Amino acid sequence: MKFTLSWLKDHLETTASVGEIVDAMTMAGLEVEHVEDPAKKLAAFTVAKIVEAVQHPNADRLRVCQVQTIDGMKEIVCGAHNARAGLTTIYAPIGAYVPGLGVTLVEKPVRGVVSNGMLCSASELEVAEESDGIMDLPADLQVGQSAAEALGLEAVIDFEVTPNRPDWLGVAGIARDLAATGIGRFKDHAVQPVKGEFSCPISIALKAAEACPVFAGRLIRGVKNGPSPAWLQARLKAVGLRPINALVDITNLISYDRCRPLHVYDRALLVGDVIEARLGHHGEPHAPEHLIALDGKTYAIGPEMCVIADGGGERPIGLGGVMGGESTGCSDATVDVFIESAWFDPIRTAQTARTTGINSDAAYRFARGVDPGFVEDGLELATRLILELCGGEPSDVVVAGQAPAPPAPIAFDPAYVHRLSGLNVGREGSLEILHKLGFTIEGQGATVTVIPPTWRRDVEGKADLVEEVARIAGFDSLPSTPLPEVPHPTGGVLTARQARARLARRALAAAGYAEAVTWSFTARKTAALFGGGAESLVLANPIASELDCMRPSILPNLIEAAGRNARRGFADVALFEIGPVFASDAPSGQRTAVAAILAPHGPRRWDNGATAEDVFAIKGELFALLDELGAPVSGLQIAQGSAGGWWHPGQSARLQLGPKAVIAEFGQIHPAVLTALDVDGPVYGFELWLEAIPEPKRKGGKSRPALKASPLMPLWRDFAFLAPEALAAGDLVRAVLGADKALIAQARVFDLYQGQGVPEGFKSLAIEAQIQPVEATLADKDIDALSARIVAAAEKLGAKLRT
Question: DSSP assignment, residue 122?
Fold first, then answer.
C-alpha cells in the first residue's frame, strides 16, 4: 500500500514530517517497507535560468549557455534543441549523480568548451519516461529553488498491510490510526448523500447471496468522460497507478482513499435492464462460460465464482470483486454510467483470484474483507465526484440484499489492559484510545460494552481490545519485568530419556552416521505405509500439502532424505535421527524414537559391489547402541517375522523383552515401500524407542562402585551343537551364558555349517565361551562340570553336542 504525505493530510491534520509519520506508523504496528523521498534523491538539483544561449564554435548541435544558478553564473554546454535565453529549467552541478543517466558529473571540455554542470530533462531526473529536450518550467520559479519543490514531487510511503487489517488499504484508515497515536487530528469527512433526480431504470437481482450479500448501484446520465484533472492524475501516478479516464480514475481514487472498490459500466453497452449477481454456470444445459476482462485476457468461469451478468443473467460482464469485463467498460464515448458498489465474500473472492491468476487492487481488498458498512456511502462519494468532474444527472440509489451483521459487542473491563500487558494506561486512557480508533463505548460501570466498527471485523474479544490499546500506547512502553526465578530441579539437569538421547546421538555419530533433522510431519499416504495415517493425526492446517500428517515413524523421512541425496549424486549414505513419533493424538501416543538407515550404493567394483552393509551389519549397530544405552541386551528376544509390514519379511526382526515389551525393530526395508517412496534399494535400518528401554536400578550414592578385576587368567572352550534349523543363534548364546552367570563372561557364535554330516533340518553352530575364574584357578573337574551345565542348557532348546 502506497500513499503520499499530502494525500494523508486530506484526512489527518498534522504538521509532522515524513520521518515522524513513518516512526508513528511503525510504533502503531504498520510495517513500513520503503520511503521514496524525491527531496533526498534530487537534493543536488535546483532551478536555474538561461541568460544567454549561443552556437557552439565547434559543433552544430551544441549551444553554449550562460546560466544563472544557485552557485552563480555558470557556462554550460547543452545539446537540447529547446535551450534558449529566458528558459527556466533544472540545473545539476559538478559532482551531482544523474539518476536517469547513471553517471556522476565531472568537469571536462565538450568540443573544446568546458561545461560547468548540466541542464536536465525530465527523463534524466526520472520524473517522466520520455522527454523532448530539457525541462521548460514556469518563469515565476525562483533560481535556487529545489527541483523536488519546483516539480511538485513529494515522498511516497510504502508499507505492508497485514491480512487482518483491510482498513489500512485506505488512506483514511491509516489517518485514523495515526490520529489515535496523537500525531494529529483525524478529519472525519462525513459522506453527504446525493439526491436522485429520477428512478433508476436498472434493477439488481441477487441469485447468490452467499457470494454477494449486498449490491448497490445508481445510474448517472449525461456525463462527459475524458481525461481526469491534473491533481487526480498526479495523485494516482504517485502511488503507481496509470490514469485512464475520469470515471475509472474516480473509482481507483476511492479504492485507495477509503478502501471501497467500485466499478463503472457504460449503460449503452449493457444488455437489458437487470444486472445479476450469480454463481458461474457449468455443464449442461449451459456451455462453459468465459469472460474477456478489462485486461484483454479471456478467463474460464468456474461454478464457485461470483459472476456479474446482464442480458437476463446469461452474459457475464464481470467477476465479482475481482475484475470487470471488456464488453461494458467505460470510454471517452460514455454518456450514461452505472456505478456498482457491492460487498463480496472474501474467501470466494480470494479463490477466484487464485484460480484465474488475476491480481487486481479490488481482489486484494475484497479478499481481506472491506467495510460492509460503507457500501452505500462509497456509492454516494463516487456520485459526488463524478458530478463534480464529469457533470450529469443522478438517479435514485437501488440496493439489493443486506450487508453482513456488524461485529458483536464485547464486554470489557479496562483494568484488563494492565493485567494482560502490564501497561499503566488507566481506564480513561484505554477508552479514549478505543474511541479514537472508531470503537463505540457504552456503559459507565467497571465493565463497559465495546462495539467494534464495521471496518474492524478482526476484533473478536477483550484480548484484541488490549492489543489495540497496547499498540497505540506504544509497544516501547511495555514494562520489562523478569520472569520469576524457577528453582533448579533435583536429580540432575537431564532426565534419563534425555541422557539416553544424548548418548545415542554421540554413539551413532561415532559409528559414522550423519544426523538428520526432518519434519515431524509426512504425507498421509507415506504415513499409511508405516502403520500411520489415522484421521486423528491429519493436520487441519499443514505447512505444505505433502506434510499433512504426523509421522508414525522416523524411517520414511530418512529414506526420502536418502533418495534426495541419491538424486544429487550422493547415493551411499548413513543417516540417523532422534525425535518424536506419533501413534495417536493422545499424550501417551507420542514416543521418542532413535532411527538409523544404511543405503549402501557404492561405486562399481570388480567383485560386483560386495559390501559389509547388510541386515547383519545394521543388527550389529543396533545391539552396540542398545548396549551403550544400558539395555539388557543379554535378555532380549529376537522375534523374526513379527516386525511391521514395511520391513522385508525374510530379513527383519523385532527385539523384545516380551510380547508387550517391544524395544526395537530392524532389517531391510520392503522393496515395495521403497518403490512407493521412489528410492532405489537396498536400504537397511532400525528404529528403537527410548521409553521402552527399562530404567536401570538406582544405586545408593553417586560414586561409582570399585572395579572388581579378577587376577586370574581367563580360558576359552569351544562347543559345536547340532541345533534345529529354526533355532535362533541368539537364543542358544543366551542359554550358554545362563548356564553359570558367575563364571561365563562372554559367548559368541564363530561358525555355522550345514551340509554333509549334518542331518536335514539341522545346522551346526559353534560357540566360543569365555570362562573367567574369580576366586581360584579352576581344576579339570570344575571345567568339566561347567561344560556339562552348558550342554544341558543347550539341550533344553533342542540342541545336542556334536560328536
Answer: T
